[in-house]
Amino acid sequence: MNGARTKQNITAQDVARKAGVSRAVVSRALSNNGSISPDTRARVLQVAEELGYQVNFLAQGLNRRRSHLIGVIVSHISDPFRSSLLDGLLREIQRHGFQALVTEIHNEQELAETLRNFTQFRVSGVIVTSGKPPEALVNQCVQQQIPVVGINRQPDIPGVDYVCSDNVAGAVLAAEQLVKGGCRRFGWLNNNNSTWAGRMRGEAFILALQQRGVDTLQDLVMLIATEEGYEGGFQAAVQKTEGIQGIFCANAQLACGFLDGMRQRGKNAPDDFQLIGFDNTPQTAQYSYQLTTLHQDVSEISRQALAHLLARTRNPAHPSQISWVNVSLIHRRTSPSTQ
Prior knowledge:
Layout: H1 12-19, H2 23-31, H3 38-51, H4 57-64, E1 69-74, H5 80-95, E2 99-104, H6 108-120, E3 125-128, H7 135-143, E4 148-151, E5 161-165, H8 167-180, E6 186-191, H9 196-211, H10 216-219, E7 220-225, H11 229-236, E8 246-249, H12 252-264, E9 274-279, H13 282-285, E10 292-296, H14 298-314, E11 322-325, E12 327-330
Parallel strand pairs: 1-2, 1-3, 3-4, 4-5, 5-11, 6-7, 6-8, 8-9, 9-10
Antiparallel strand pairs: 10-12
Protein backbone atom coordinates (compact mmCIF):
# COMPACT_ATOMS: atom_id res chain seq x y z
CA MET A 1 0.00 0.00 0.00
CA ASN A 2 1.29 3.49 -0.84
CA GLY A 3 -0.34 5.16 2.16
CA ALA A 4 -2.34 7.56 0.01
CA ARG A 5 -5.61 8.66 1.55
CA THR A 6 -8.84 7.72 -0.19
CA LYS A 7 -11.38 10.40 -1.07
CA GLN A 8 -13.72 8.96 1.54
CA ASN A 9 -11.11 9.67 4.26
CA ILE A 10 -10.36 13.27 3.24
CA THR A 11 -11.38 15.66 6.02
CA ALA A 12 -12.17 19.35 6.18
CA GLN A 13 -8.87 19.79 8.02
CA ASP A 14 -7.02 18.37 4.98
CA VAL A 15 -8.76 20.95 2.80
CA ALA A 16 -7.86 23.73 5.24
CA ARG A 17 -4.21 22.68 5.33
CA LYS A 18 -3.80 22.60 1.54
CA ALA A 19 -5.78 25.83 1.04
CA GLY A 20 -3.79 27.62 3.75
CA VAL A 21 -6.87 28.61 5.77
CA SER A 22 -8.47 27.65 9.06
CA ARG A 23 -10.98 24.86 9.54
CA ALA A 24 -13.66 27.48 10.30
CA VAL A 25 -13.04 29.21 6.97
CA VAL A 26 -13.50 25.88 5.16
CA SER A 27 -16.80 25.38 6.95
CA ARG A 28 -18.04 28.84 5.96
CA ALA A 29 -16.94 28.37 2.36
CA LEU A 30 -18.60 24.99 1.92
CA SER A 31 -21.84 25.96 3.66
CA ASN A 32 -22.02 29.34 1.89
CA ASN A 33 -22.75 30.91 5.27
CA GLY A 34 -20.80 33.53 7.15
CA SER A 35 -18.39 36.25 6.08
CA ILE A 36 -15.71 35.18 3.63
CA SER A 37 -14.14 36.80 0.58
CA PRO A 38 -15.07 35.50 -2.89
CA ASP A 39 -11.41 34.71 -3.65
CA THR A 40 -11.00 32.66 -0.48
CA ARG A 41 -14.24 30.78 -1.09
CA ALA A 42 -13.17 30.01 -4.67
CA ARG A 43 -9.78 28.72 -3.46
CA VAL A 44 -11.36 26.48 -0.80
CA LEU A 45 -13.90 25.07 -3.27
CA GLN A 46 -11.15 24.36 -5.80
CA VAL A 47 -9.03 22.53 -3.21
CA ALA A 48 -12.06 20.57 -1.97
CA GLU A 49 -12.79 19.47 -5.54
CA GLU A 50 -9.17 18.50 -6.17
CA LEU A 51 -9.07 16.38 -3.01
CA GLY A 52 -12.55 14.94 -3.61
CA TYR A 53 -13.84 16.18 -0.27
CA GLN A 54 -17.57 15.72 0.34
CA VAL A 55 -19.48 17.36 3.18
CA ASN A 56 -21.13 14.87 5.53
CA PHE A 57 -24.23 16.82 6.53
CA LEU A 58 -25.37 14.29 9.12
CA ALA A 59 -22.00 14.20 10.87
CA GLN A 60 -21.88 17.97 10.63
CA GLY A 61 -25.22 18.08 12.43
CA LEU A 62 -23.87 15.91 15.26
CA ASN A 63 -20.88 18.22 15.66
CA ARG A 64 -22.80 21.50 15.41
CA ARG A 65 -26.12 20.49 17.02
CA ARG A 66 -27.72 21.44 13.69
CA SER A 67 -27.18 20.07 10.21
CA HIS A 68 -27.50 22.03 6.98
CA LEU A 69 -30.56 19.92 6.20
CA ILE A 70 -34.09 21.26 5.93
CA GLY A 71 -36.84 18.68 6.16
CA VAL A 72 -39.70 18.95 3.67
CA ILE A 73 -42.90 16.95 4.16
CA VAL A 74 -45.07 16.36 1.08
CA SER A 75 -47.80 14.05 -0.13
CA HIS A 76 -49.07 13.17 -3.61
CA ILE A 77 -45.86 14.31 -5.30
CA SER A 78 -47.40 13.25 -8.61
CA ASP A 79 -49.94 16.08 -8.29
CA PRO A 80 -48.74 18.81 -10.71
CA PHE A 81 -49.16 21.68 -8.26
CA ARG A 82 -47.45 19.88 -5.40
CA SER A 83 -44.53 18.86 -7.59
CA SER A 84 -44.24 22.46 -8.80
CA LEU A 85 -44.25 23.70 -5.20
CA LEU A 86 -41.63 21.13 -4.22
CA ASP A 87 -39.42 22.23 -7.11
CA GLY A 88 -39.70 25.85 -5.96
CA LEU A 89 -38.84 24.90 -2.38
CA LEU A 90 -35.79 22.87 -3.43
CA ARG A 91 -34.46 25.78 -5.46
CA GLU A 92 -34.92 28.21 -2.60
CA ILE A 93 -33.43 25.84 -0.02
CA GLN A 94 -30.33 25.32 -2.16
CA ARG A 95 -30.06 29.04 -2.86
CA HIS A 96 -29.63 29.58 0.89
CA GLY A 97 -26.87 26.97 1.13
CA PHE A 98 -28.97 24.16 2.64
CA GLN A 99 -29.88 20.70 1.42
CA ALA A 100 -33.41 19.32 1.41
CA LEU A 101 -34.45 16.11 3.13
CA VAL A 102 -37.73 15.30 1.37
CA THR A 103 -40.19 12.71 2.67
CA GLU A 104 -43.47 11.77 1.01
CA ILE A 105 -46.20 10.80 3.44
CA HIS A 106 -49.47 8.94 2.89
CA ASN A 107 -51.19 9.36 6.26
CA GLU A 108 -50.99 11.21 9.56
CA GLN A 109 -49.02 8.39 11.23
CA GLU A 110 -46.25 8.69 8.63
CA LEU A 111 -46.24 12.45 9.15
CA ALA A 112 -45.66 11.99 12.89
CA GLU A 113 -42.87 9.47 12.27
CA THR A 114 -41.23 11.81 9.78
CA LEU A 115 -41.23 14.68 12.27
CA ARG A 116 -39.54 12.44 14.83
CA ASN A 117 -36.91 11.41 12.29
CA PHE A 118 -36.24 15.02 11.36
CA THR A 119 -35.48 15.91 14.97
CA GLN A 120 -33.04 12.98 15.14
CA PHE A 121 -31.31 14.23 11.98
CA ARG A 122 -31.02 17.60 13.71
CA VAL A 123 -32.44 19.46 10.76
CA SER A 124 -32.21 23.24 10.68
CA GLY A 125 -35.91 23.57 9.94
CA VAL A 126 -39.05 21.78 8.78
CA ILE A 127 -41.48 22.77 6.02
CA VAL A 128 -44.86 21.03 6.09
CA THR A 129 -46.80 21.14 2.81
CA SER A 130 -49.19 18.25 3.52
CA GLY A 131 -51.16 16.84 6.41
CA LYS A 132 -51.90 18.18 9.88
CA PRO A 133 -48.89 17.57 12.14
CA PRO A 134 -49.58 16.50 15.73
CA GLU A 135 -49.31 19.57 17.95
CA ALA A 136 -47.30 17.69 20.58
CA LEU A 137 -44.60 16.78 18.05
CA VAL A 138 -44.50 20.28 16.64
CA ASN A 139 -44.09 21.58 20.18
CA GLN A 140 -41.07 19.29 20.55
CA CYS A 141 -39.55 20.90 17.47
CA VAL A 142 -40.29 24.34 18.87
CA GLN A 143 -38.74 23.41 22.21
CA GLN A 144 -35.62 22.22 20.40
CA GLN A 145 -35.60 25.51 18.48
CA ILE A 146 -36.23 23.78 15.16
CA PRO A 147 -38.34 26.26 13.17
CA VAL A 148 -41.47 24.85 11.53
CA VAL A 149 -43.31 26.47 8.62
CA GLY A 150 -46.65 25.27 7.23
CA ILE A 151 -47.62 25.98 3.62
CA ASN A 152 -51.32 26.31 2.88
CA ARG A 153 -51.99 24.74 6.28
CA GLN A 154 -54.49 25.89 8.89
CA PRO A 155 -52.62 28.37 11.13
CA ASP A 156 -53.55 26.91 14.50
CA ILE A 157 -50.31 25.87 16.25
CA PRO A 158 -48.42 28.45 18.36
CA GLY A 159 -44.75 28.88 17.53
CA VAL A 160 -45.26 27.84 13.90
CA ASP A 161 -45.20 30.25 10.96
CA TYR A 162 -47.46 29.85 7.93
CA VAL A 163 -47.33 30.84 4.27
CA CYS A 164 -50.65 30.62 2.44
CA SER A 165 -51.99 31.67 -0.91
CA ASP A 166 -54.72 34.28 -0.54
CA ASN A 167 -57.58 31.82 -0.98
CA VAL A 168 -60.24 34.38 -0.13
CA ALA A 169 -59.04 36.85 -2.74
CA GLY A 170 -58.89 34.03 -5.30
CA ALA A 171 -62.47 32.98 -4.59
CA VAL A 172 -63.63 36.57 -4.92
CA LEU A 173 -61.91 36.85 -8.32
CA ALA A 174 -63.62 33.63 -9.44
CA ALA A 175 -67.06 34.79 -8.30
CA GLU A 176 -66.57 38.17 -9.93
CA GLN A 177 -65.49 36.59 -13.22
CA LEU A 178 -68.48 34.22 -13.34
CA VAL A 179 -71.03 36.87 -12.40
CA LYS A 180 -69.64 39.32 -14.96
CA GLY A 181 -69.68 36.48 -17.48
CA GLY A 182 -73.46 36.37 -17.15
CA CYS A 183 -73.82 33.32 -14.91
CA ARG A 184 -76.87 33.18 -12.65
CA ARG A 185 -76.67 29.61 -11.37
CA PHE A 186 -73.41 28.31 -9.93
CA GLY A 187 -71.57 25.19 -8.85
CA TRP A 188 -68.74 24.65 -6.34
CA LEU A 189 -66.69 21.47 -6.87
CA ASN A 190 -64.50 19.99 -4.14
CA ASN A 191 -63.67 16.49 -2.91
CA ASN A 192 -64.83 14.66 0.20
CA ASN A 193 -61.52 14.88 2.04
CA SER A 194 -60.77 18.48 1.21
CA THR A 195 -57.70 20.31 2.44
CA TRP A 196 -58.06 23.34 4.68
CA ALA A 197 -57.20 25.57 1.72
CA GLY A 198 -59.90 23.94 -0.40
CA ARG A 199 -62.54 24.43 2.27
CA MET A 200 -61.49 28.04 2.69
CA ARG A 201 -61.90 28.67 -1.05
CA GLY A 202 -65.40 27.23 -0.99
CA GLU A 203 -66.53 29.28 2.00
CA ALA A 204 -65.12 32.45 0.46
CA PHE A 205 -66.77 31.69 -2.90
CA ILE A 206 -70.19 31.34 -1.26
CA LEU A 207 -69.76 34.61 0.62
CA ALA A 208 -68.55 36.41 -2.52
CA LEU A 209 -71.60 35.23 -4.46
CA GLN A 210 -73.92 36.39 -1.68
CA GLN A 211 -72.26 39.81 -1.67
CA ARG A 212 -73.07 40.03 -5.39
CA GLY A 213 -76.75 39.36 -4.85
CA VAL A 214 -76.81 35.60 -5.50
CA ASP A 215 -79.27 33.53 -3.47
CA THR A 216 -76.88 30.67 -2.72
CA LEU A 217 -79.61 28.53 -1.16
CA GLN A 218 -81.41 28.46 -4.52
CA ASP A 219 -78.73 29.12 -7.10
CA LEU A 220 -75.60 27.32 -5.84
CA VAL A 221 -75.07 23.56 -6.21
CA MET A 222 -72.44 21.83 -4.07
CA LEU A 223 -70.70 19.20 -6.21
CA ILE A 224 -68.78 16.64 -4.17
CA ALA A 225 -66.12 14.44 -5.78
CA THR A 226 -65.70 11.04 -4.11
CA GLU A 227 -62.05 10.86 -5.25
CA GLU A 228 -59.23 13.38 -5.32
CA GLY A 229 -57.69 14.84 -8.45
CA TYR A 230 -58.56 14.29 -12.08
CA GLU A 231 -60.63 11.13 -11.56
CA GLY A 232 -62.74 12.84 -8.93
CA GLY A 233 -63.48 15.73 -11.27
CA PHE A 234 -64.26 13.41 -14.18
CA GLN A 235 -66.75 11.43 -12.12
CA ALA A 236 -68.34 14.59 -10.68
CA ALA A 237 -69.44 15.58 -14.18
CA VAL A 238 -72.21 12.97 -14.02
CA GLN A 239 -73.80 14.66 -11.01
CA LYS A 240 -76.77 17.01 -11.30
CA THR A 241 -75.11 19.75 -13.32
CA GLU A 242 -78.10 20.66 -15.48
CA GLY A 243 -78.75 24.38 -15.43
CA ILE A 244 -75.42 25.26 -13.79
CA GLN A 245 -73.83 28.07 -15.75
CA GLY A 246 -70.63 28.73 -13.82
CA ILE A 247 -68.49 26.24 -11.87
CA PHE A 248 -65.58 27.04 -9.55
CA CYS A 249 -63.26 24.12 -8.65
CA ALA A 250 -61.06 23.74 -5.57
CA ASN A 251 -58.00 22.83 -7.63
CA ALA A 252 -56.73 22.38 -11.17
CA GLN A 253 -56.87 18.59 -11.30
CA LEU A 254 -60.54 18.53 -10.34
CA ALA A 255 -61.25 21.18 -12.98
CA CYS A 256 -59.44 19.32 -15.78
CA GLY A 257 -61.23 16.07 -14.92
CA PHE A 258 -64.59 17.82 -14.76
CA LEU A 259 -63.98 19.48 -18.14
CA ASP A 260 -63.23 16.14 -19.78
CA GLY A 261 -66.21 14.52 -18.07
CA MET A 262 -68.54 17.20 -19.40
CA ARG A 263 -67.03 16.85 -22.88
CA GLN A 264 -67.84 13.15 -22.80
CA ARG A 265 -71.45 14.19 -22.23
CA GLY A 266 -71.30 16.50 -25.25
CA LYS A 267 -70.96 19.76 -23.30
CA ASN A 268 -68.13 22.24 -23.72
CA ALA A 269 -66.88 25.39 -21.99
CA PRO A 270 -67.56 28.22 -22.33
CA ASP A 271 -70.54 27.63 -24.64
CA ASP A 272 -72.50 25.30 -22.32
CA PHE A 273 -70.96 26.31 -18.99
CA GLN A 274 -68.12 28.42 -17.62
CA LEU A 275 -65.32 26.84 -15.58
CA ILE A 276 -62.61 28.22 -13.28
CA GLY A 277 -59.94 26.19 -11.50
CA PHE A 278 -57.26 26.95 -8.91
CA ASP A 279 -53.45 26.43 -9.21
CA ASN A 280 -52.46 27.28 -12.79
CA THR A 281 -50.47 24.08 -13.28
CA PRO A 282 -48.79 23.47 -16.67
CA GLN A 283 -51.61 21.11 -17.66
CA THR A 284 -54.19 23.90 -17.43
CA ALA A 285 -52.34 25.89 -20.12
CA GLN A 286 -52.26 23.00 -22.60
CA TYR A 287 -54.26 23.48 -25.78
CA SER A 288 -56.76 20.76 -24.92
CA TYR A 289 -57.71 22.51 -21.64
CA GLN A 290 -56.91 26.22 -21.79
CA LEU A 291 -58.47 26.52 -18.34
CA THR A 292 -59.28 29.83 -16.72
CA THR A 293 -57.66 29.50 -13.31
CA LEU A 294 -56.21 31.20 -10.24
CA HIS A 295 -52.43 31.37 -10.23
CA GLN A 296 -50.49 30.44 -7.08
CA ASP A 297 -47.01 31.98 -7.06
CA VAL A 298 -44.84 29.02 -5.95
CA SER A 299 -41.64 31.07 -6.20
CA GLU A 300 -42.97 33.66 -3.75
CA ILE A 301 -44.43 30.98 -1.48
CA SER A 302 -41.04 29.25 -1.37
CA ARG A 303 -39.18 32.51 -0.77
CA GLN A 304 -41.44 33.43 2.13
CA ALA A 305 -41.19 29.95 3.64
CA LEU A 306 -37.39 30.14 3.81
CA ALA A 307 -37.54 33.71 5.07
CA HIS A 308 -39.73 32.59 7.98
CA LEU A 309 -37.41 29.67 8.78
CA LEU A 310 -34.34 31.89 8.87
CA ALA A 311 -36.09 34.60 10.88
CA ARG A 312 -37.27 32.11 13.49
CA THR A 313 -33.76 30.66 13.71
CA ARG A 314 -32.58 34.10 14.77
CA ASN A 315 -35.52 34.68 17.12
CA PRO A 316 -37.15 31.37 18.21
CA ALA A 317 -39.52 33.04 20.68
CA HIS A 318 -41.11 35.34 18.11
CA PRO A 319 -44.95 35.06 17.92
CA SER A 320 -46.38 33.04 15.06
CA GLN A 321 -46.72 34.88 11.77
CA ILE A 322 -48.87 34.31 8.68
CA SER A 323 -47.90 35.51 5.21
CA TRP A 324 -50.61 35.67 2.56
CA VAL A 325 -49.30 35.41 -0.99
CA ASN A 326 -51.24 37.18 -3.73
CA VAL A 327 -53.06 35.15 -6.38
CA SER A 328 -54.12 36.32 -9.84
CA LEU A 329 -56.75 35.25 -12.34
CA ILE A 330 -55.36 33.73 -15.54
CA HIS A 331 -58.05 34.09 -18.17
CA ARG A 332 -58.22 31.39 -20.85
CA ARG A 333 -60.89 29.70 -22.97
CA THR A 334 -63.21 28.16 -20.36
CA SER A 335 -64.77 31.50 -19.49
CA PRO A 336 -65.59 34.48 -21.71
CA SER A 337 -63.70 37.74 -21.60
CA THR A 338 -65.38 40.29 -19.33
CA GLN A 339 -63.22 43.24 -20.35
